């Protein structure tokens, strides 16, 4: 019998960004490896027939290829590829009739995104400025001092004239950073989302919408957006055109998302998803009413945004991602999986069912997996909660109690959906193969239960969300599934914070894993790339006056003297989201107090670990770490 190995996990190839042709007959998707060998991630473009699911690879060069876009007649495919100059993507065109691929741009800075316009001769681009001779000379002369705020590189709107083969840059938006483009379905103006800066700490709070007419070059400003606006979509209404987007629900920076509806004619904006107990994740334009994906507890709901609000069309188990649709909105495609099958491309009508048309990981067929089941329980204050339980491979609940590892998700605005829990980072099925039961909780602060549920942790991280998790663990102990003497806890990013927080509150855990975890909220607000969002979670910043500050009371570092649990600390050396200094701080504190721990730094890695050998090390090292403490019953 084939068993699950670390190599099988990290050598996965996963489909991404499916795009349906306008006529609905073909679909293009990107096939990408889960891990990287070398300096570049090599991806491929594949076509699949929507009727018979026959697939074929349509690009053959070794390159990073992404963002496929269809022509209106469904006969031509445009995409980005760095085949000519690795790391510098350019727009390419694939003619299906003869398989010819033609490079259309040679922009020095590379192209970030592209959008085919109603005018068949025009393609809108998002690209940074090309290097100038002066900047090249400065680089050669080592005159490369960085003055923050000066000469900041912004992505700008550019127009590619296909007939002339020329790229021009309209002088618009006062040099603001262009984030996203969407043309009105009738071929009218472009909606353009910009920010004041590309800085993640500042830019998402400065969003503005504009209209740009590619024929005349004229611009109309529509005003500011809510924070972290994305996923633009147009639709016609009785009062004229509407423009929508997904963004954070005000007033706090850590909150659930909502769909915001701007009436272009009336210049009024309203929240179209207020009060719902689910959270919008994607908004997709059609020729009529747009479609919205909602995280709905452990599952996903597909809706249409009608004048009276979202109308539910179908519900699907687990998680749906990367929604694509034909212009009529009658056929959709998404990435979806099951409890025991990885995500693949699925196609079908809006109302379902959806049919799987790719099989990207046949190597997993026949490999035994742990039984996964949804959990529903109530928090100490009566709040309804959910999560998942994965049992050891080949075991049932009656075989317990088992050593239990609780893995807390990141975000905190994320969730566990009822899908296959097998990833390069420590995940439920990887540990279930080694004899562990795994608890995957969805405490408050996460996605899938509406705005209030998500916003409740702002300034209170580690408080109620911690008791939510503890209540679930106690429930599993009471049911005879978890052995109270063999408990472990793990997590990455915000989950890493929760793991570090947990072992400062209790000695119940015999082993912990803290991966890219938050140790000091004030330090993170000062140095992380999302500083103001972290300040909202921690409740204050270091410049909030003379301390002690609110964030001190919710930072694991403040409780380091209470920690006795052995800790494995993992961190990427180049992490800008949660900088390495967080892990160094924790390591020094644990060393000071004589706590058993292991500190591992992965060179060249950011917030996520990408290199194959590093992913293998993460999987093997973490399982070995829990094996040391949890596989033997205490006497």
From TrEMBL:
InterPro entries: 6-blade_b-propeller_TolB-like, AB_hydrolase_fold, Peptidase_S9_cat, WD40
Location of the region described as Disordered in the Swiss-Prot/TrEMBL record: 307-326
Transmembrane domains' residue ranges: none
Keywords, comma-separated and alphabetical: Hydrolase, Protease, Serine protease
Peptidase S9 prolyl oligopeptidase catalytic domain sequence ranges: 428-631
Gene Ontology terms, MF aspect: serine-type endopeptidase activity
BP term (GO), one: proteolysis
Name listed for the protein in its UniProt record: Peptidase S9 prolyl oligopeptidase catalytic domain-containing protein
